[in-house]
Model the fold of this input.
Amino acid sequence: MLEQIIKENKTRLILFVLDGLGDLPNSAYGNRTPLEVARKKNILKLLPKSVLGMAYPISLGITVGSGPGHTALFGFDPLKYQIKRGILEVMGMDMEVYSNSVAIRGNWAKVQKELDSFVVIDRRANRLETSINQQLVKKIEPIIKQIQEEFKVKIDIKSGLEHRLGIVITPKEGKFDVDISSNDPQKEGLKVINFPSTSKLGIILEKLNNMIFDMLKDDDANYILMRGISDIPELPNFSKIYKVKPLAIAQYPMYLGIAKLFGFDTIKIDNYDNLVDYFRDYDFIFIHYKYTDMAGEDGDFERKVEHIEKADEIIGQILRSDPDVLVITGDHSTPCIYKSHGFQPTPYMLYSKDGDVFSICQDFTERECYRGELGIFPLTLNMQLMLAYGKRLQKFGA
Done:
């Protein structure tokens, strides 16, 4: 139905995603959330022309990762289009993939060997510096070469920010059955999960890590924890469906990766200065801000407040481009008291330049969003709302 009534025009639509934005009342801070504590001078300027609500990515009570959260934000069903973390990571890092490639998101980790098992000491190797990550990748090049020759595969490992890695494995003939899941136990003190010996891909990954440990066992990072092991999915083209020219702007590769899979142009930035300079040739701009989620996962309430305030400064920049529609929301909630993603809906705010709203809320917080004009609704309706307020939908039916 939506595709039938979308029309082109010159309105500019901006989606600003504060990763893990939503939170819960914290007794140590007067039963308030970081959004309630943060100073938001630019957001408050938008309230008279904004509608608010709370949005859930899949269904009430379901905790999601960033992949499903962004799939919903782009207007697609996360259950139908399931994207694993590996392909998002490597696409965002501009790694070359083929139709028969396997993509993996890796973390350098510190483990110790106990009998025939490896026990995780630090899942992120103390978030080692990016420069050390790059040195380690170069150091293991002889191992990669040996495994490539033995198993007749092409292996590309690229260092990302801090402890993160992108890994692409492509067989010279045929295609792997991607029938294995993560080796990451998700918690320190637990044993690494062995890949199954019945899987050729699993055998390759086990040998890779065993050889890495033998070489690096005394280093602070000596093992690779692997997640999001995936083949290459086929996804809808955002531009063709919504009749826009889309751009994604982010610091972290994964979010550029998911946008690229949906057909966005992408720009990786080091900071958020001079954002408006990138907008010139685009009418749909997706901007991702990671640090609210990182603070939530660390359980750091005050740092989450600080990053909401920094995001508010970025909104001041965005407003200089005079958007017709600006959505400020998250891809999921990350409550500080959980130190992880939560199942709670994410706060959602849509600013309309035309002011065609009721504007009943006094602040952009979880409590106000729960009583907002939009109520509690599926995040998959985000694009429908943005297009409607951007005057890009025609009447449906006679």
Summary: The chain has two domains: 2-82+235-389, 90-230. The first helix runs from residue 2 to 5. The domain at 90-230 is CATH 3.30.70 (Alpha-Beta Plaits). The chain has 14 helices and 13 strands.
